[in-house]
Amino acid sequence: LVAFRRLAPDRSELEFAHALLRANFWDGGDPSSDEFYRGLAVQLGLDPETFVETMHTDEARDGALYDFALARQLGADAFPRLYLQTREDYLHLIAKGYSPFERVQAIIDKILQ
């Protein structure tokens, strides 16, 4: 995710997360291999070698450690979890585990009122 943020800063992280989860859980890819991420990069229109090189930088490692620390701080102990970050940089927990779209939409609408 950190490499995607760096190489495609104007694109949604959800795009990468969706591709990653699909490649892992649907297609049975091995996320411990560089080849897995090369394939994701190609799928997302990014240079695969640059993507993998960026993944292996200290900056990417530090960014990933920060993301994991933030997840622990938020108590993200279930998958999936959905948060909404408001302009005030406050994170609202929207869903823990599966939630139907209608419920998620209602919670988001209430927060944004």
Q: Can I get a quick summary?
A:
With 113 residues, the protein is mostly helical. The protein has helices spanning 2-7, 13-26, 34-43, 48-55, 58-73, 101-112; strands spanning 81-85, 91-96.
The SSE order reads HHHHHEEH
Q: Output the CATH topology of the largest domain.
A: Cyclin A, domain 1
Please give the order of strands in the largest beta sheet: 1-2
N-to-C CA distance: 31 Å
The helix-and-strand class reads mainly alpha
**What is the strand content?**
5-15%
- Number of alpha- plus pi-helical segments: 6
Task: Looking at this protein, list some descriptive labels.
113 residues, mainly alpha, 6 helices, 2 strands, globular
Protein model, in words:
The chain has 113 residues and is mainly alpha-helical. It has 2 domains: 2-73, putative protein disulfide isomerase domain (Cyclin A, domain 1), CATH 1.10.472; 81-112, no CATH class. 58% of the residues lie in helices and 10% in strands. The protein has 6 helices and 2 strands; from the N terminus they run H-H-H-H-H-E-E-H. Strands 1-2 form a two-stranded antiparallel ribbon. Helix 2 packs across helix 3 and helix 3 packs across helix 4. It is globular and about 45 Å long. The protein starts with a helix and ends with a helix. The mean pLDDT is 91.
